[in-house]
Every structure is written in C-alpha cells, then in structure tokens.
Design a protein that fits this description.
Strand content: 15-25%
Low-confidence stretches: 188-197, 211-229
Distance between the termini: 49 Å
Strand order of the largest sheet: 1-2-3-9-4-7
Shape: elongated
Number of strands: 9
Structural class: alpha+beta
Length: 229
C-alpha cells in the first residue's frame, strides 16, 4: 500500500497533466517553488496543511482530491457534451481562429477544434507541441509546413496525421479555409524532444490562460462567434 507521500505525488502529477500544466506553471499557481513541487511529485517530501490548502486552491480542487485514488475508467458512453453553433470559445493564434470544442469535459484524451485558416507567410513561425495531431480540410486550400518535409497543399477532403513534436504551421493558399483539427493529450508527448513549455500548442495555452511569454500580444481570448458551427 502506498504511503501518503507517494499518493500525494501521484495525485499531483495526475491533476496537473489533466490541465496540461508544467511543474513550473503548477508551482506558480500554487504559490510554491518549482523545486519543492518537483520533490512532492516524486515522493521525496510532503507539505504542511497550509501549503496543501494553497496548492489545492491553485489547482482549483478540494484539498481531499490531492489524496484521492485514480478515477475508475468510465464506461463507454459515460460522458457526453453537445456544442451548439456559435458557443465554442475562440482563440486567434497568429491569424488562424481556433474554435475549441467539448471544453466542458475537463479530462479527455483528445482536443478537437475547428480552425479558420487565414494566416499567410512562409511557415517560419511554425511550432512543435506535445502529442500527435490530425487535421481534415473542410473547405478551401491549406498549405502545411512541417519540419523534415516539403510544404504540401491540401484541399477539401484531404487529411494529415503527424507527430506534433515536429514544427508545423497551417497557412492559407488563396483565401480563408476551414479545417477540423484534433490534438491528442500532451501526456503522449515525446518528452525527450518537447519541453514543458511546448506540451500544449500556443492556441491551447491561450485557451487555458497561459500565453507564451514571448508572445504577449496573444494573451486574450476572443468571444465565441457563429463561425464556430
């Protein structure tokens, strides 16, 4: 049977990964040092009740959740969420509008979004992030820049699946385009190639209120728009 120190470490890791936060980000929100949180997560130390309450507040969970056992696997069909047209939270990331779907479900394996591709350029602002990515072009034409590959133009009906730790960027070819994009959970990231700050895409970090400090201009989320249908 695990002791309280090990249980706390396991719960902390599970809770922060569920939110897609790095240890540094979790420490900042919980008012602790990064080194202290690392030790807690690795079962090397515990926290006083005051520090536990402070950490629980930062994680936005009851303090008891820091010692709760893993949730049992949900049976098929155990959760459901319906997105109505125009209700998806929208992020403008470098000209591409990301309409995130199913955000009401906090813990899920995949993150779907509709993207309006308006960005131009040569793909020099490509980014890597954790996990894997699938994209399906619904309308228009999109040029995909992907590290290690020649740029490819995709039209309606075309799709792509790739390791998201490769730097990548979608740009418009001859006008706005629309595509469905699905990110896998960042816990599937290749840890040897992706840093904590790159676990989520820029758009996902903006959605969670954690903008890239190198891009302060991207710190605000747009209101939902009917185009998110």
């Amino acid at each position: 049977m695990k002791d309280d120190v090990s249980v706390l470490g396991d719960c902390l890791m599970r809770l922060r990964k569920r939110r897609g936060w790095s240890i540094a980000e979790t420490a900042r929100r919980g008012g602790l040092s990064t080194s202290m949180l690392w030790k807690v997560e690795n079962g090397q130390t515990t926290l006083t009740h005051g520090k536990l309450a402070q950490l629980a507040k930062g994680l936005e969970v009851p303090i008891g959740d820091l010692f709760a056992p893993p949730e049992p696997a949900l049976r098929k069909g155990g959760r459901r969420v319906v997105n109505r047209a125009g209700t998806a939270p929208t992020i403008d990331c470098g000209g591409n509008l990301h309409h995130f779907l199913a955000t009401e479900i906090a813990s899920k394996h995949y993150f779907p979004c509709l993207i309006e591709v308006n960005a131009g350029g040569d793909g020099s602002d490509a980014e890597p992030h954790g996990g894997e990515e699938f994209a399906y072009v619904m309308s228009g034409r999109v040029k995909l820049h992907c590290e290690g590959y020649s740029p490819v133009i995709m039209e309606a009906g075309d799709s792509v699946y790739f390791d998201a730790s490769l730097e990548h960027r979608y740009v418009s070819v001859d006008g706005p385009a629309r595509m469905l994009c699905v990110y896998s959970h960042p816990e599937h990231a290749r840890q040897d190639e992706v840093s904590d700050h790159e676990m989520h895409s820029r758009a996902m970090k903006l959605l969670h209120g954690s903008p890239d400090p190198a891009r302060p201009e991207e710190a605000e989320m747009m209101p939902a728009t009917p185009s998110a249908a």
